């Protein structure tokens, strides 16, 4: 299913073959991560694990091939644990209406092997919107995150929240990179964050101060 890109925030690739290559490489990294996670033993108290990169693979692939098909000088790195976003759609921070109506992405969504009754996966039919051996889990994810940074030739990481800032710093300190990457901290938009008033206004200023708006201008033809 082909849908026209609806925002200048997303630019299409100039070369079809190269865009297919980079999308495929990213999806291979997702598969590599999942193979490693299969070996990770959760503690007994964890009764269910939701991995939408597996059970929501169809919309995930559509998102990757449509919007993750070129090098990205800037990457937004955030944690998305909510049960009514990516857990339902397979798209990061994927609130259903935004994914379906704005990004133009839909597709079949399956079920995790074990499902929590109050956190049922309904895919695009969902009507709602929004610690084991943790260091080993971080190492598995950091390793693949490093490869994603290299694949997309990232120059700037905008870390959304302190957790992601910490993980980004740890990744950059642990793995060698072909070129330097800058980390910028952005306050998480969650209402649970203290002193989180006027988040939009604060971060418009953040974009201006860090000269990030240039990345959202449609290139002249």
Automatic annotation (TrEMBL):
Q: Which GO terms describe its biological process?
A: base-excision repair
Q: Name the domain of life.
A: Eukaryota
Domain Uracil-DNA glycosylase-like residue range list: 66-202
Composition skew (Low complexity), residue ranges: 1-17
* A GO cellular component entry from the record: nucleus
Q: Where is this region: Disordered?
A: 1-20
Localization: Nucleus
What GO MF terms are annotated? Answer: DNA binding; oxidized pyrimidine nucleobase lesion DNA N-glycosylase activity; single-strand selective uracil DNA N-glycosylase activity
Keyword DNA-binding applies: yes
Could you identify this protein by its name? Uracil-DNA glycosylase-like domain-containing protein
